[in-house]
Structures are given as C-alpha cells and as structure tokens.
Amino acid sequence: MRKLLDFLYRRRTLAIFIGLEFVCIWLIVSYNQRQNADFLNSSNALSARISTRSQNISDYFDLVEINEQLMLENEILQAKLNVRISFPDSVVQSSESYSVMGARVINNTFRRSSNFLTIASGSDEGITAGMGVISAKGVVGQVKSVSGRYATVFSLLHPKVMVSSTVKRTDTNCSVQWDQESYDLASLKFVPRHIGLKVGDTVVTSGYNSVFPPNVNVGVVSDINLEEHMTFYEAKVKLSVDFTSLPSVFVVVHETKLEKDSIEAL
Amino acid sequence: MSRISIREQIFNFMALFLIQLPLLYRITLGDRVFGFFYIGFLVLIPFRISRPYLLLAGFFSGLLVDAFSNTPGIHAGACVLTMYIRDLWLKIVIDDTEELTNLNHISLKKTGLLLYAFPLVLIHHLIIFLVENGGLHLFGMLISKTILSSLFSFTIIFVLNYLIVPKPRRT
After folding, report:
1. Interval B90-123: pLDDT, tens
2. Cα of A95 vs its chain's centroid, Å
3. Chain A neighbours among B 99-128 (CB < 8 Å)?
4. Adjacent-strand bridge partners of A118
5. Burial classification of residue A144, based on how many CB atoms lie within 10 Å of its CB (0-12 exposed, 13-18 middle, 19 or more buried)
6. Beta carbons of A111 and B70 less than 8 Å apart
7. In B, which residues are within 8 Å of A27 by CB distance?
8. Which of A39, A50, A152 is nearest residue B22 as measured by Cβ atoms?
C-alpha cells in the first residue's frame, strides 16, 4: 500500500491527468443518456443570464428580420382562420388537444455537429422535458432539460432527434433525422420502395408520438435515391425552418399526453 | 528567470477567456470556422506553474466553457489534454527554457509562439470537433473544420497577444 501511494505521488501529474480525463468521459457519456442532466448546460442560471444579455444586444440588429417574421406568422394565422370559418370540419372530431406557448430564443447554434437552443421560458411557465418545439414555419426540436426560467432544447439539427412524420401526398409513415451535413437538409428514413416518392413532396409530422401535433411542416423532399437492393428510399428533405434566424419559437403543450401514453402502455 | 507578470495574466484572462464565454459558437467565419480562442489563455499561463495546477486550471475552465455550450466534458477533456502535453511540447520546441517565465511574443519570439501555440490549438480543436462529431464519418469536413478553425483561433490569440504585451521600450 505504501509503495502504491509512493508511486502515485511520484506520478501525480499522470494520475491527475488520467483521473480528470475519466471525469470528462463520464460527463460526455452520461450527458448523452440522461434526459434531465443537471446544471452543466445552457439553461443554468449563470450562463442563461449571460446569454440573455448578449441576445438582448444582438436583437436590436435583427429587428427588421423579426418584424418580417411576425408579419409572416400573422399571414399564416389569418389564412388558417379563413379556412376554419369557411369549412367547419364536423366529420372527424379529434379529442386530442394541443396548445402552444411562445418563447424567446436566447441562444441558438446550427453549425455544430449537434445543435441546441436555449429559450427563456422554463418550469415556471409549465415547460417540462420532452415537449415539442415548433415555429411558424415548422418543427424546431424537443425540450431537453428545464430550469426555473430557462430551458435547453434539442434542435432538429441534433443526430439524436428523430421526428415521426408522414409524406403528405401518400400518407406514408416515415422518420426524419438530421445527418450532420448541412443545416438545411435532413434525411428521410423508412419510406418503403413501393411508394412513388417524388421530389417536391411535402413531409409533415404524423402526430403519433404525441410530441408534435399532426400536420406541422417538416420540409420538402429534395433528393431521392433508390437502387435495386434497397428496401427503403434514401432521400433528403429540405427543412422548412430556417435555423439561421429563429428569434422566437412555440412550445407545444399536449394536454391529453398522459392519458394517451397510459392507454398505449397497456 | 524573470518574475511572473500578474498584469499580463489578468489581461489574458479577460481578453481571451471572459470575452469568449458569451461569444462561444457565435464568432464564426462562413460555415465551418469557429473561434475557440479561450485556449490561448491556458496555453499562455506562465511556464513555472507546476503541472498538476495546470491540469486543474484546464479542467475547470473547460467545464465553465462547457456550461455555455451544452457539451459537458468535451471542452474540459480537450483542455486537460492540451495542458498535459503543454510543457513537454514547450521543452521540445524551445531550446533554451532556463530563462523562460511569461509566455508571450517577446519571450518566445514570433516563430517560437507559432511553433509552440499553433500545434496545441490544433490538437485542442481536433479533439473538440472529433468528440462532437461522434466518430470519423464526414472526415474531410472534420479536418477542414479543424485546420481552418485553428488558424482562425490562433490569429486571434496572436493579435491579442500583441495588444496585451507591449514592445519593450529601448532606452
């Protein structure tokens, strides 16, 4: 024992080095597994407050863009309102109800190989981990962890995020997952070869996993590849959300999620 | 052997480290060039500090950076490795380390600073991008990202070093 301690003391630099690297590896691995990982992320009070400050400053320079986006959002809402009024759909009555909550984005990355957003709403506003996040143009991501007033969100540009979606024209179930290449493209998975997929088909969320409401835009098919031996198409989707400018997002609250999950678990 | 210049360390800390925190992943050129110049502060810590302290300094500043970028462990791990090889590398590159205390463009000369700091910055960036990428796929992009980002970070460190450490006046 004495000899071991002596040895460790003589080699203390190496020992500390190995010890610290182990801690780092443990942090990296555990962060990828746990949903609600603790304080070491951008929703903790200190880093979120500093991010808010710097976002406040840069917001002034983006005011024109923000206004344009708001105008666009208004237009979309107006269009939806008109549809509501002219065609009351009384045939299919869904008991599922979703509501949305606006939130300000205070930090957003899109050029890294796994990207996150930080938003300035947290558990005080009723946000919990796992909720979906959308913008007026389409799917943005999923809440990863929350603190009192802030939340960290997995961007759709994170390889661990898979969105259950449908090809609108053919009603085919599929998944959309980012392939780390470019911030406006993701890959479309599990579309079987007998479906006549075309460039230009719209891909929307399916609503099956109760994270996103059905029929939220994901993107448009932009590139298709199908070879003899393949069971599924290899296709790319041009994402409808522009991740380079996201001043604000909506968090989706699924009011009947608990009920749905409990009946599906039976 | 000269004394450790506290003033230089404080300026290094403020200019290279504190400014970086809110600007991490915001200082970019084009698509794939990131500036992680906070590593300059760690690389330029005076030479006489003992290595266990260097490792701890690297670990905690890495963790602080991680808290801002949702990457627990990645920056810390890269910093600890950089700090571990720092002094070994310095002894290989610089022949005469007897007189060395403060590390800057005067004590190391321009070429010395380049030879000493740039490979360390490169290794630090390589580890970060490699771990973040989660493997060796998209290899070309990974390498170009690493090299361009290191050049960018090193340029910032080099320029800031010129601003922080003034040329000695000849009398």
Report:
1. 988 888 777 788 888 888 888 888 999 999 999 9
2. 25
3. none
4. A107, A152
5. buried
6. no
7. 66, 72-73, 76
8. A50
Q: Quickly count helices (H) and strands (E) in chain A.
A: 5, 12
Rounded Cα distance between B64 and A145, Å, is 18
Taken in order A137, A170, A187, A42, the sign of the CA dihedral is: positive
In percent, the amount of chain B with pLDDT more than 90 equals: 32
Contact in structure between A248 and A73 (CB atoms under 8 Å) = no
> How far, in Å, CA of A156 to CA of A212, rounded?
12
Q: Which two tokens stand for residue A244?
A: 């380079």
* Amino acid letter, B41: F
Q: Which structure tokens are listed for A80?
A: 């939806």
ipTM, two decimals, is: 0.82
Q: Which two tokens stand for residue A160?
A: 């661990």
Q: What is the pTM of this model?
A: 0.73
- Closest of B123, B105, B107 to residue B48, by C-alpha: B107
Q: What would the pLDDT profile of A183-240 be if each residue is shown by its tens digit?
A: 889 999 999 988 888 999 999 998 888 888 888 889 999 999 988 888 899 999 999 9
Segments in chain B below pLDDT 50: none
CA dihedral B108, B111, B112, B118 (to 10 degrees): 120
Report the candidate in A147, A94, A124, A108 with the shortest Cα–Cα distance to residue A246: A108
